[in-house]
Amino acid sequence: MHARKRKTFPVVIAHDTDTPKRGKSTALSNGGDNEQNIAQHESQSQYFSCKSNNLKLGQDFFNQPCVSLAKALLGKVLVRRCADGQELRGRVVETEAYLGGEDKASHSAGGKRTERNLAMFMKPGTIYVYPIYGIYLCMNISSQGEGAAVLLRSLEPLQGHTLMHQLRGARRREGSRALKDKELCNGPSKLCQALDIPRAFDRRDLADDPEVWLERDPEERVLPLQDGEVVTSTRIGIESHGEWAAKPLRFYLRGNPCVSVRDRKAEAQAMPTQPADQT
Questions:
Q1: Which H helix or E strand runs over 77?
Q2: Which residues contact 100 (CB under 8 A, 6 or more apart)?
Q3: If DSSP states are collapsed to H, E and C, what string results for 166-218?
């Protein structure tokens, strides 16, 4: 059986009004947003015509096993409401699952519970924000399972590009080249910078927070992700953790330019098989 054809919508990224398919956004620019064009484009987008309350994900969504949540998060939209009321949005395109006590690469390996990782042991949907290298942050979401959580690894910017560029630029060296839109959130620390996710968000409830939450992508109301659109690969940066380094616990949307690291071998294995021509 051939896969059903997906109805597509315009992604809220400036400089190109072509309608991309999910996972293959073609409207990513080289930076230098034109605020007037962005405002006009956003005013025509489904993200501005839907009431947020109708799309917001509640507690039931997060209450699922870690791997299931990691996959379910793909395509969902992370929303950050700033102090001035402006909302930043990014579609989740890459995640990693950390399974708790048994997972040697997890902060909760061996059931270790500390002041730092306490959010991993709290109810599903709890935000876990931790620092790396002393200056960067990563955002995770707790799931079912003792000490289990999902790392948000990459987002596709949808709304608030100008502010995202400013937030990322404030942490870069003077004279650095302008970031492309696809580079704003293509890494766990980058997305925290671009959406202004502070350490203070640690242990907050993502299902009931006024400053940060998750929404369903309006496109999912037409058609959910299909077989072959999700690539399963190994996690990044955990090479020292033995057999757990080879576990297929990273998930991303095939063909999306905002994915941090592509695994072409895994992509080839995930390609859906086409039925034989019976004519």
A1: strand 77-81
A2: 66, 106, 108, 111, 120, 145, 146, 147, 148
A3: HHHHCCCCCCCCCCCHHHCCCCHHHHHHHCCCCHHHCCCEHHHCCCEEEECCH
10/13 Cα distance (integer angstroms)? 8
- Helices and strands (H, E) in the chain, number of each type: 8, 8
Q: Two tokens at 62?
A: 């997060």
- 141/120 Cα distance (integer angstroms): 8
Q: Measure the N-to-C terminal CA separation of the chain; round to a whole number of Å.
A: 14
pTM of the predicted protein model: 0.80
Q: Quickly count: other Cβ atoms within 10 Å of residue 108's Cβ.
A: 25
Helix (H) or strand (E) holding 220: none
Burial 122-152 (b: 16+ CB within 10 A, else e): eebbbbbbbeeeeeebbbbbbbebebbbbbb
pLDDT, tens digit, for every residue of 22-68? Answer: 444 433 444 444 444 444 444 444 444 444 568 999 999 999 999 99
